[in-house]
């Protein structure tokens, strides 16, 4: 019953009014079920108690297929490469927290510093004409002379935190690095007059793809990723470490990172493939990986960068070893060796990897080998700091050092027959 | 009345289905007659078991934990109803939320959990520093204690062994296992629900007395509280000690932190000039068995 203004009028004060009103209005009738228009033609409509039963509904299919933007994303099990057992997947953006130490545990390898012996002998013995001038031109081409003009990211300086920089336009970081590495590779190929096998026996692939996998303590670890440039050669790399040196590695103890598992920084996924591709999918005359060129646009530490380079070198070595000696190979009859150049804007880092075993279930037996050579600064630069005075209004390039380029020449010309022949002749001449 | 109406509707169509309709009536009544009483901050808050229909996409994993900071929106001190809940908030630098785990429990089988501190970092959303710790294949953020640094090994347990332990800075134990007088932080009010008390920079509580099933702890405000023996607390002070005494520098810098200007200089009532001093309050007792508040029920509307 609704209370309205009528109830408070004069006749409402009588008892009879309330009696009649309650008789008339004090009834609540349940409303009849409202039947929708499209169901009225049906003769029998079943009425269900929803608390006890569930309504049977027909599936309605739209006459026109739905727009793609409303389509539901597929579940994990509907992916084409779905596997029941998950795998730990290493991609380029996986940052190993412990750096080189963690990478050594994952690949069961002995860590050495500097260059391996056969490549160390080549440093400083290969030269090109007008070396310093060409190298400085290469640096200037990448840093200043390139014609790209793009809006650069906002800048801040730790020396003057509150300073507001005007927005800068110029060459972005990735472009600078790409031009620089291309120039360095071109300079290395200038040696083709003395060493013609640099051009004939080599094949350079850009943005080459890598997939390979192995078992680490009964857990599947897979590699996925691209490297910027991959140099392939027609013959496998000569071994870095001797047979005696490899046998001595049985006594070496791997580092430990208790209580953390070394697989912490890898992705755990169900969709992966079990292929072995290092650069080229089909058989090819030049199918042995020689050197990998990687670039770093991130702000990681040098140890973490070297670790990523090492993992990529290991991945390439595993793929080529499985293609050569079969899927279930444990101790390789001959080791597979891969080099890696890990470039940033100003520096070059070198890693050398020798794969001796693929038996990574235990930490006993023969181990693999890795060599690191870090922080070879070719030059350094200081971005502009206008609050210091007129001399600091533009970027300053300083401390040019061509020593890293000599190392790069030795890496690039490794495994060429002419270089070693010439080297041996010189040694013989000295001894006589 | 409302319930019968809904039931009639339900009967008539045979389509709409609501589980447990008696709760619906409560809710209708509550918001119909007593809506004005349910103010924010008062005790008469609306019951937690109201209807809440959630449209959840099964593809998105809501509970997935990651170290990657999450996007955070500025509230300006406003609550979900749009009214001002906290005064003096607004503006400031953009911040991102780190999902911090306040539960310092052991393993599921009862053994101690040993973790390694990877780094101690700054967090914009709180005054204290936070630490990245890892064990096995899992990493998480926790509150950093005063002397915590990268490379340390820390332990955490939530099981009483009956023996009084020797407290080590940064380790977490149940309160009953600690000796009287130890300084603790990140204290649980109810066992198993995560630390709530003394999480600000430099703050700490102190264990005053141990009873057979309860222990009495002085909070940072010097008021006492009585909690269960099984509640977990971390030994030591919270990191970033002396944060409150550092000068902010300027009024503008205060605005960078998202604080709006306030008037007046706060002075404590110390009884000088005839002001009244109240007697010390009773210790707060938190019930051991049933924690306050119910888990919110979820009702699904189906067609």
How many domains would you count in the coordinates of chain B? 2
User: How many individual domains of chain A?
Assistant: 1
The helix/strand series of chain B, from N terminus to C terminus, equals HHEEEEEEEEEEEEEEHE
Q: Give a quick account of the main beta sheet of chain B: strands, pairing sense, barrel closure.
A: 7 strands, mixed
List the quaternary state of the chains: heterodimer
General shape of chain B: globular
Poorly predicted ranges of chain A: none
How large, in whole angstroms, is the Cα Rg of chain A? 36 Å
Number of strands of chain B: 15
Keywords (chain B): Ribonucleoprotein, Ribosomal protein
Family (chain B): Belongs to the universal ribosomal protein uL2 family.
Domain Large ribosomal subunit protein uL2 RNA-binding (chain B): 77-156
Pfam family, one (chain B): Ribosomal_L2_N
Topology:
The complex is a heterodimer of chains A (432) and B (303).
Chain A: H1 15-25, E1 82-90, H2 100-107, E2 109-113, H3 117-120, H4 131-145, E3 150-151, E4 169-170, H5 173-189, H6 197-200, E5 202-216, E6 219-233, H7 243-248, E7 267-271, E8 277-278, E9 288-295, H8 302-325, E10 331-343, E11 347-357, E12 368-377, E13 380-382, E14 396-398, H9 403-412, H10 417-431
Parallel strand pairs in A: 1-6, 2-12, 9-10
Antiparallel strand pairs in A: 1-7, 3-4, 5-6, 5-8, 6-9, 10-11, 11-12, 13-14
Helix pairs in contact in A: 2-8, 4-5
Chain B: H1 2-13, H2 21-33, E1 70-71, E2 96-97, E3 113-121, E4 130-135, E5 138-143, E6 153-156, E7 172-174, E8 183-185, E9 187-188, E10 195-197, E11 205-210, E12 214-218, E13 224-228, E14 232-235, H3 251-256, E15 284-285
Parallel strand pairs in B: 13-15
Antiparallel strand pairs in B: 1-2, 3-4, 3-6, 4-5, 7-14, 8-11, 8-14, 9-10, 11-12, 12-13
């Amino acid at each position: 019953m609704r209370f309205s203004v009528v109830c408070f009028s004069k006749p409402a004060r009588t008892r009879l009014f309330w009696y009649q009103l309650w008789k008339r209005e004090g009834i609540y009738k349940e409303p009849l079920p409202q039947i929708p228009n499209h169901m009225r033609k049906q003769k029998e409509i079943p009425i269900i108690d929803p608390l006890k039963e569930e309504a049977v509904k027909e599936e309605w299919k739209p006459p026109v297929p739905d727009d793609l933007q409303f389509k539901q994303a597929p579940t994990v099990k509907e992916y084409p490469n779905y596997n029941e057992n998950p795998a730990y997947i290493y991609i380029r953006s996986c940052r190993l927290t412990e750096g080189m130490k963690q990478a050594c545990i994952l690949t069961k390898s002995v860590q050495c510093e500097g260059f391996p012996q056969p490549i160390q002998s080549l440093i400083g013995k290969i030269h090109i004409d007008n070396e310093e001038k060409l190298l400085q031109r290469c640096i200037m081409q990448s840093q200043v002379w390139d014609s790209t003009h793009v809006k650069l990211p906002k800048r801040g300086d730790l020396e003057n935190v509150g300073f507001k920089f005007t927005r800068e336009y110029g060459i972005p970081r990735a472009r600078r690095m790409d031009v620089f590495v291309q120039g360095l590779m071109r300079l290395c190929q200038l040696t083709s007059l003395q060493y013609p096998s640099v051009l004939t026996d080599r094949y350079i692939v850009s943005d080459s793809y890598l997939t390979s996998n192995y078992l680490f303590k009964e857990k599947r670890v897979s590699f996925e990723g691209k490297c910027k440039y991959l140099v392939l050669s027609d013959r496998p790399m000569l071994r870095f470490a001797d047979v005696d040196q490899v046998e001595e590695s049985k006594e070496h103890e791997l580092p430990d990172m208790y209580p953390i598992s070394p697989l912490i920084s890898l992705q755990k996924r169900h969709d992966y493939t079990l292929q072995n591709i290092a650069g080229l999918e089909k058989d090819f005359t030049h199918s042995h990986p020689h050197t990998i060129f990687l670039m770093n646009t991130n702000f990681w530490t040098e140890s973490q960068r070297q670790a990523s380079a090492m993992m990529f070198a290991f991945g390439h070595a595993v793929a080529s070893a499985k293609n050569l000696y079969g899927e279930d190979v444990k101790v390789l009859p001959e080791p597979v060796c891969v080099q890696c150049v890990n470039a940033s804007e100003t520096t070059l880092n070198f890693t050398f990897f020798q794969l001796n075993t693929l038996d990574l279930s235990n930490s006993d037996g023969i181990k693999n080998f890795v060599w690191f050579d870090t922080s070879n600064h070719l030059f350094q630069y200081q971005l502009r700091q206008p609050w210091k005075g007129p001399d600091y209004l533009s970027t300053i390039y300083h401390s040019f050092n061509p020593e890293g380029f000599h190392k790069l020449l030795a890496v690039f010309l490794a495994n060429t027959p002419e270089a070693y022949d010439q080297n041996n002749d010189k040694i013989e001449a000295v001894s006589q | 009345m409302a319930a019968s109406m809904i039931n009639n509707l339900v009967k008539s169509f045979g389509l709409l289905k609501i589980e447990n309709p008696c709760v619906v009536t409560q809710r209708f009544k509550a918001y119909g007659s007593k809506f004005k009483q349910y103010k924010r901050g008062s005790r008469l808050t609306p019951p937690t078991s109201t209807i809440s229909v959630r449209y959840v996409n099964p593809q998105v994993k809501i509970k997935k934990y990651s170290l990657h900071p999450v996007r955070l929106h500025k509230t300006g001190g406003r609550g979900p109803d749009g009214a001002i809940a906290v005064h003096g908030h607004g503006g400031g630098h953009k911040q991102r939320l780190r999902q911090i785990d306040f539960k310092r429990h052991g393993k599921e089988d009862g053994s101690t959990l040993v973790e390694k501190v990877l780094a101690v970092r700054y967090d914009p959303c709180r005054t204290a520093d936070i630490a990245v710790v890892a064990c096995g294949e899992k990493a998480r953020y926790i509150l950093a204690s005063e002397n915590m640094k990268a490379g340390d090994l820390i332990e955490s347990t939530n099981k009483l062994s009956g023996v009084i332990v020797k407290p080590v800075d940064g380790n977490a134990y149940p309160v009953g296992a600690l000796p009287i007088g130890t300084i603790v932080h990140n204290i649980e009010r109810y066992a198993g629900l995560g630390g709530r008390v003394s999480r600000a920079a430099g703050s700490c509580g102190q264990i005053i007395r141990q009873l057979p099933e309860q222990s009495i702890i002085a909070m940072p405000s010097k008021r006492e509280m009585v909690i269960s023996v099984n509640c977990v607390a971390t030994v030591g002070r919270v990191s970033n000690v002396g944060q409150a005494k550092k000068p902010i520098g300027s009024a503008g810098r205060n605005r960078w932190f998202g604080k709006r200007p306030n008037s007046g200089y706060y002075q404590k009532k110390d009884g000088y000039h005839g002001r009244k001093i109240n007697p010390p309050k009773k210790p707060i007792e938190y019930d051991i068995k049933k924690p306050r508040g119910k888990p919110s029920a979820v009702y699904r509307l189906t067609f």
